[in-house]
Design a protein that fits this description.
Elements lengths: L8 E2 L4 E6 L2 E6 L1 H7 L2 E5 L6 E2 L4 E7 L3 E5 L4 E6 L8 H5 L8 E5 L11 H11 L3
Antiparallel strand pairs: 1-2, 2-3, 3-9, 4-6, 5-8, 6-7, 8-9
Length: 131
Amino acid sequence: MASVPSDLKYSRSHEWVRVEGDVATIGITDHAQAELGDIVYLDLPEVGRILQQDAQFGEVESVKAVSELFSPVGGEVVESNTGIADTTEVVNQDPFGGGWLIKVRIADTAELASLLDAADYEKFANEHGGH
């Protein structure tokens, strides 16, 4: 069973969000990394890029497929976890920790209301399978 931490918010495109103040840390869920298999490449946005909610911000490539990454909230990219570019396996091993992808300064916190809580995401993931 995939891990679904209860303190996070989730998108229907299998990203998670950890909110600290006005900054959202974003990554892919344990469910998503398990569906993708071994991750071999990440394409992440540069700092300063402005993202719209639900807009594509990058790609994750695994041995099985290339998947687009979508931002659960809109705002400015304040940090991109480029340090994991050479150690992409950390996304598989620690998707909610060291395998985070980007940090975004949230433009409109009201957008958080459209995200799923852990229980709703777990139900959604079980019903809808892969990424």
